[in-house]
Amino acid sequence: MGRTLVELFYDVVSPYSWLGFEVLCRYQHIWNIDLRFRPAFLGGIMQATGNKPPAMLPKRAEYMLKDIKRMAKYYQVPVKISEDAFQHVLGTSSLGAMRFITATDMTQPQYLEPLSREFWIRFWSQHEDVSQPENILAVARQAGLSSELAQKLLEMVSSPAVKNRLKETTEEAIKYGAFGMPAVVAHFSGEPHLFFGSDRLELLGSVIGEKWLGPVPS
Fold first, then answer.
1. pLDDT in tens, 134-167
2. Starting from the edge strand earliest in sequence, which strands make up the sheet with 183-188, in order?
3. Residues 117-128: b if buried by 16+ CB within 10 A, e if exposed
4. What are the positions of the active site (predicted)?
5. Phi and psi (nearest 5°) for 173?
């Protein structure tokens, strides 16, 4: 049996994407899967599908505060959420960060996992800005990239190649049926299966015939 290709479409502005990302990183060596990270732009998906940030509905925002705290503990991922976190999110564009991650994916893919994680840590654990170039460079250094390499990637951010790649990846997610993130697509039995959210990974396992061992498999 060949390995199942599992694509994870994510944006670092989404805390649920972080939860799904960490769990799939843990399972990539347990399940018979090829995990492929697909950095995309959540703003583009929202716009194309008419979706709105869940926090814009006050009752849902109230629930999400509790939900993310519980999920962070259960998933053992250091997401820290506070009352003003949603204002912080609504006031930040992740476009620059996602273009930087895309440039990394195109030229230095070995840094994709640690770099994406560092963006989440900075944004969702330390509640610091990730939209300014100097902050993006700080994240890159934290992830182990040299200053020269980080600077080179930052210069690529405004290039048509990087902009188009991010746009194409985002459009691909929409074509699979994504309306939010994380969007996980498993290519199994000759067709793509879309799973939305970080709490559907147990179901993903069941569809591809793999055993679910909880969010933190030992």
1. 999 999 999 999 999 999 999 999 999 999 999 9
2. 33-39, 4-10, 183-188, 191-196
3. bbbbbbbbeeee
4. 14
5. -60, -45
DSSP 8-state class, residue 2: P
Contact present, 23 and 75 (Cβ < 8 Å): yes
Give yes or no for a cis peptide into 182 (omega within 30° of 0): yes
Alpha helices in the chain (DSSP H): 15-27, 42-49, 58-75, 85-90, 95-107, 112-120, 133-142, 147-156, 160-175, 201-208
Q: Indicate yes or no: pTM above 0.90.
A: yes
- Residue 77 binned pLDDT confidence (cut-offs 50, 70, 90): very high
**Band of residue 89 on the pLDDT scale cut at 50, 70, 90:** confident
Q: What is the maximum alpha-carbon separation in the chain?
A: 48
- What's the whole-number average pLDDT of the chain? 95
List domains and CATH numbers for the chain: 4-208 (3.40.30.10)
| CA distances from residue 107 to 52, 68, 76, 146 in whole angstroms, order as listed | 33, 33, 31, 14
